[in-house]
Amino acid sequence: MAILSVLLPPAPPLKAKAKPVDKVDDDIRRLIDDMLETMYAAPGIGLAANQVGVLKRVIVLDIARSEEPPTPLALINPEVVWASEETAVFNEGCLSVPEHYADVERPAEVKVRFLDRKGVRQEIHAKGLLSTCIQHEMDHLEGVLFVDHLSALKRNMILRKLSKQRKHQAESAL
Ligand code: NI
Hints:
Peptide Deformylase, alpha+beta, 3 helices, five-stranded antiparallel sheet, 7 strands, about 170 residues, binds nickel (II) ion
């Protein structure tokens, strides 16, 4: 397993649409394991393949609290087959937008169909944080960041601060 580097804007894969996985093989399972290791190391509760520069429809997540046993989940080719009319607002963050958080409104519950790491078709009915997290990660597969749900004013403010942070970090690393 390996820890991969997580891309930040304006890296092109963050804006690109990921392609469906046509065969769940050892390469995909290795990608999943590397993504999980990268997510746990960050630490984060979700990661999409786009964020590590791989344009395949793969997301991983684990919403267990730190004192609980880990519950890693990997979804391949996830598709929302039902979304509730009721919505929920969560204060979201993202490993590709470090240190910035904002409220995002999304359907409160979703049913998602996907392939598991054995290539077996599964369906999950997600509520609460799990629902938000799956939708956030699935957005990445479409090239969408959580800041894209905000007003242009808020989004640009966050992206500007992020690029200043990065410049500062790059300078202090010299
Ligand atoms: Ni994210």
